[in-house]
């Protein structure tokens, strides 16, 4: 057996029993997504620490950025829809913590409760963006990653999330 044969292990997966399927590449992608998700969550919290707001959970950070997006008030339903979150309680809890930190404020749009970014929240998002640009974006650009490939990957992941959503609905009906 040559060294080349010995190290030809196939796709990198965490569950070989799931990779033994009609499409083992999905297991490879799932493992990469799991690793990427954990790294992304770790990055978000560390970036926010560096921006001056320690102790924030990844969901709080995502919600904060989404509330700041386009500087328009958002409802709980808006936030859950955009982030594809079913459990509104987790988002509601994140919002409460952001209100306590005075990063978002509540209001009303008819009968619906809304949340808006505060000046302190907008400033924190700006600082986060500065840290992100300096530490993450510069290093990614230095690797020579093609931005068009990143965009294609994002589109593929969004499309695949629809497949997972549909499969989850089917599994719930069994």
Automatic annotation (TrEMBL):
Lineage: Bacteria, Pseudomonadati, Pseudomonadota, Alphaproteobacteria, Rhodobacterales
A molecular function GO annotation: DNA-binding transcription factor activity
Top-level division of the source organism's lineage: Bacteria
Pfam families: HTH_27
Name under which the protein is recorded: MarR family protein
Record domain HTH marR-type: where: 58-121
């Amino acid at each position: 057996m040559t060294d080349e044969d010995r190290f030809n292990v196939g796709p990198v997966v965490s569950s070989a029993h799931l990779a033994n399927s009609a499409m083992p590449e999905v297991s490879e992608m799932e493992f990469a997504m799991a690793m990427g998700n954990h790294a992304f969550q770790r990055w978000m919290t560390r970036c926010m620490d560096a921006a001056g707001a320690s102790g924030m959970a990844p969901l709080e950070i995502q919600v904060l950025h989404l509330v700041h997006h386009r500087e328009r008030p958002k409802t709980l339903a808006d936030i859950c829809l955009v982030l594809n979150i079913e459990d509104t309680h987790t988002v509601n809890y994140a919002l409460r913590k952001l209100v306590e930190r005075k990063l978002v404020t509540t209001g009303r749009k008819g009968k619906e409760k809304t949340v808006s970014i505060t000046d302190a929240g907008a400033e924190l998002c700006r600082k986060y963006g500065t840290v992100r640009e300096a530490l993450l974006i510069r290093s990614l650009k230095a690797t020579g990653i093609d931005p068009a490939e990143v965009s294609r990957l994002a589109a593929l992941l969004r499309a695949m999330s629809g497949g997972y959503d549909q499969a989850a609905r089917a599994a719930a009906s069994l």
